[in-house]
Structures are given as structure tokens and as C-alpha cells.
Design goal:
Number of helices: 5
Order of helices and strands: EEHHHHH
Radius of gyration: 24 Å
Largest sheet: 2 strands, antiparallel
Helix content: 55-70%
Strand order of the largest sheet: 1-2
Structural class: mainly alpha
Strand content: under 5%
Number of domains: 2
Number of strands: 2
Length: about 160
């Protein structure tokens, strides 16, 4: 007999509920036997199910958290040494990741991780803009901003980790 979904594939397997012929590509293992995808009622995990309205809330949270974190990071980072310049990376990453998670009812997944990365990027850009306006001698070239780039990289990893 031929698979109902893939007619070019021969099979000896049938759904344990509806008796429709299924191949190894179609079958879904369930506690009561092999079933077709329709009878198995395959759904996405609710944690990863992100609707467009939830994406808009995530984007808004990432922007707001990025602006707030970037403003605080830029204002207080003028007076710090190398080690204390990296610690804000942990705080910015945690803050942006947690803001996106709270705005989306603790949902997770790659689209929300991308929103968190965008929030961290906003924070870093705002920090650089504040450093240029507050104290021009601190940052004349982005290549000299090693501690800021390290902190931003740490922030990205922390924010993405909050949304796994």
C-alpha cells in the first residue's frame, strides 16, 4: 500500500486510529502506537507559541529596556575602570532579557531572543552616544571601546540565555 501523504513511498504501516497508510516520514510516535499527524494532534509547545501581538509587546519591552539600560550604562560608565566597565554587561543583559520575558508571559524562542539582542544593541548605541556627549576624551574611536564591546557581548549572551 502507498502512503496517503507521500504516494511515491510504499509502506506497511497504518495509523492506529484511522487506519490511514503512513510512511516513516509521516508517523508520530504516541503512547498508544504510531499515528498520522492529524490523529496525533501535534501542537507547538505553548512556551514557544508567539503570536504577533506578543511580538509587538516584546519589541516595545526591548526598546524601553534598551533605552533605560543604555542611559544608565552610559551615564555611570564614564567613571569606571576596566573590570567595573564589564559588570554592566551582566546587568544590561539580564535587564533586557527579563523585560522581554515579562512582557511576553515568560515565553521563549528565537524570535524573542532576536528582540532581546536588538534591545542590547539599542543600549550599547545609546551608551556610545552618551559617552560622546558627556566626556569626549573618554571615547574618540569605537576601536578603543574594548570594555564596552566586551560588556555588550556578555549582555547579548545573558539576554539570549534568559529567553531559552
Amino acid at each position: 500500500m502507498q502512503c496517503a501523504t507521500h504516494p511515491a513511498i510504499e509502506t506497511e504501516l497504518a495509523c492506529s486510529r484511522c487506519e490511514k497508510p503512513i510512511c516513516s516520514k509521516c508517523l508520530v510516535h504516541t503512547p498508544v502506537g504510531a499515528r498520522c499527524p492529524e490523529c496525533a494532534n501535534v501542537r507547538r509547545i505553548p512556551t514557544y507559541n508567539v503570536q504577533p501581538a506578543m511580538m509587538r509587546r516584546a519589541a516595545a519591552a526591548a526598546i524601553v529596556a534598551g533605552v533605560v539600560a543604555g542611559g544608565v550604562w552610559g551615564f555611570f560608565n564614564v567613571f569606571t575602570f576596566f573590570f567595573f566597565g564589564i559588570i554592566p554587561g551582566f546587568l544590561v543583559g539580564y535587564g533586557v532579557g527579563e523585560a522581554v520575558a515579562l512582557a511576553t508571559n515568560r515565553r521563549s524562542g528565537p524570535p524573542l531572543q532576536a528582540m532581546a539582542v536588538a534591545g542590547v544593541a539599542i543600549a550599547y548605541v545609546l551608551r556610545v552616544a552618551l559617552l560622546f556627549t558627556l566626556d569626549d576624551w573618554v571615547l574618540r574611536d569605537l576601536r578603543l571601546d574594548l570594555r564596552g564591546l566586551i560588556a555588550a557581548t556578555i549582555a547579548v549572551f545573558i539576554a539570549v540565555g534568559r529567553l531559552r
